[in-house]
Write a structure and sequence with these properties.
β1 and β2 form a beta hairpin. This protein has a two-stranded antiparallel ribbon. The protein is built from 20 helices and two strands. It has one domain. 74% of the residues lie in helices and 1% in strands. It starts with 9 loop residues before the first helix and ends with a helix. It has 494 residues and is mostly helical.
């Protein structure tokens, strides 16, 4: 450990400096030159990607800032995926934002700046090895997202969604802070390594630990959007501008996964039997309520919100199936399966909301399932891309979503919880209905809107790559699965 070593923090330092520079440059730009802010934001993401890729290739785990910050294979892989997610979000959102004066006019380039600020918070969360650093990253991300949800100030539904998100987000942060304070009081440390050591020693008051753990899991459950802390997800997904909904449903899920691993797996391995039971309840309820409620939705953003709840339930299945490092230093594939599922889910979500924004135009929001009617007649290629996206969410082979679900189910079966795997399969079959309903209206219904679909070149290319990537990862899932497994094993072994 070298407290003066800034190398592991270079991506964060660079992004913070880049945000300040882009913000200053944006002040002097007219609306006609606002694309400069967009291009500079993309360049900043590319540079951060290069820095994190270099760290990932080394495969080393490095601690700095008095053990509060860690750069390890898991953090670097998740950061790279976060850059891709935010970059695609900016590409998909540019025309949508222009049509609604979210990236021009009185708001200027605030959308791009706040998106980068939220990413910086996510990067801090992913590499945090201390309770306070986790909370610092969480608040940086959350405050940026609160502002973005309310960005359309003259839009009543967006303002209402922002108020709900802010109030419930503050409540969740309170839960998390209360849990942290209880664990700090019991163990005498904010450092996750020291907390793990203290809990493993068995000298800490167990009831206090469990009490703090309950609040900790509640706060994490809110950030993941799982039942019974899901009440914000449908309203915020539907009410927020679609570009902001994509930003909410994409990269933050990777950060939430990271802090769940940090807090529960690395920080509280001695309490695994307790938090695994909690995650079991949350997972089953999320899959049940998410899938069943999504069936009756007519608004596709609201349907995808309940879909997200059920998908997060699957991620929890992977987390509760993992076995903390044992005497032989080995782990099961539960955590790597959950990580693989998180990454592929985010990639799929990006494409779905990209299609929604592609079908939207000035004065029209393509938010209802009926807006997808006859898409095959209007654009056969993008109908095919949407088909692959829906198949991935439903877990239909050969798209990558099938292998993501399969890997999680294999992890569950490896723990002997056959009943849990059966429940997951049954709810997945229920969930397939509303995904296939979208496919049905695209291919078998007459279009309600015959307006020409106007797609910019960058969006067209990005969406096409997004859809093809899902198919490619489905046909050859090995490299990403191997990368996730290696990252998890190296991280937990450090």
């Amino acid at each position: 450990m070298n407290n003066l070593n800034l190398i592991p923090v270079l991506p964060e330092i660079f992004l913070a400096v880049a945000i300040c520079a882009i913000l200053l440059i944006d002040l002097f730009l007219s609306d006609a030159k606002r694309n400069i802010t967009y291009v500079l934001s993309i360049i900043a993401l590319v540079v951060c990607g290069g820095l994190s890729l270099g760290d990932f290739n080394t495969g080393a785990t490095v601690y700095t800032f008095n053990n509060m910050f860690v750069s390890d294979p898991m953090s670097n892989l998740l950061k790279i995926c976060s850059y891709i997610a935010v970059g695609l979000t900016l590409v998909y959102s540019r025309q949508y934002g222009l049509d609604r004066e979210m990236v021009n006019g009185r708001l200027g380039g605030e959308f791009y700046i706040l998106a980068l600020f939220s990413l910086l918070g996510q990067m801090v969360m992913i590499s945090a090895n201390n309770f306070l650093i986790i909370y610092l990253g969480l608040e940086l991300m959350s405050l940026s997202l609160y502002a973005m949800v309310a960005m359309r100030r003259d839009h009543a539904i967006s303002t209402e969604a922002a108020m709900k998100y802010f109030i419930l987000g503050a409540l969740a942060s309170g839960f998390l802070l209360y849990g942290i304070s209880m664990l700090y009081g019991a163990t005498g440390s904010l450092d996750l390594t020291e907390v793990a050591r203290a809990t493993a020693a068995g000298t800490v008051n167990k009831p206090i630990l469990i009490f703090g753990l309950v609040f900790l899991v509640s706060g994490l459950a809110f950030k993941l959007g799982v039942v019974p802390f899901h009440m914000w997800v449908p309203d915020v997904y539907q009410g927020a501008p679609t570009s902001v909904t994509l930003l909410l449903g994409g990269a933050p899920k990777l950060a939430a996964f990271a802090i769940t691993i940090r807090l529960l797996v690395e920080g509280l391995p001695a309490l695994a039997i307790d938090w695994q039971q909690m995650l079991t309840v949350l997972a089953v309820l999320s899959m049940a309520i998410g899938n069943i409620t999504a069936i009756v939705q007519t608004n596709i953003k609201r349907m995808l919100a309940y879909s997200t709840i059920s998908q997060m339930g699957f991620i929890l299945l992977g987390l509760l199936s993992g076995v903390v490092v044992g005497a032989d230093g080995s782990t099961t594939n539960g955590y790597s399966a959950a990580m693989f599922y998180s990454i592929t889910y985010v990639l799929t979500t990006l494409g779905v909301f990209g299609v929604i924004m592609m079908l939207s135009r000035a004065g029209f929001e393509a938010e209802n399932i009926d807006d997808f009617k006859g898409l095959n007649q209007r654009s056969p290629w993008f109908a095919l891309v949407t088909l692959m996206l829906m198949f991935s969410l439903a877990g239909v082979p050969p798209v990558v979503g099938f292998y993501a679900k399969l890997s999680v189910l294999q992890a569950v079966l490896s723990t002997g919880q056959i009943w849990l795997a059966i429940v997951a399969v049954l709810f997945s079959l229920i969930g397939a209905y509303y995904y296939l309903r979208v496919v049905k209206v695209m291919y078998f219904d007459e279009p309600l809107d015959n307006a020409k679909i106007v797609v910019s070149k960058d969006v067209s290319v990005a969406l096409s790559i997004n859809g093809v990537a899902l198919l490619a990862l489905g046909l050859v899932p090995g490299p990403l699965m191997t990368a996730c497994a290696a990252a998890i094993v190296k991280t937990l072994a450090s």
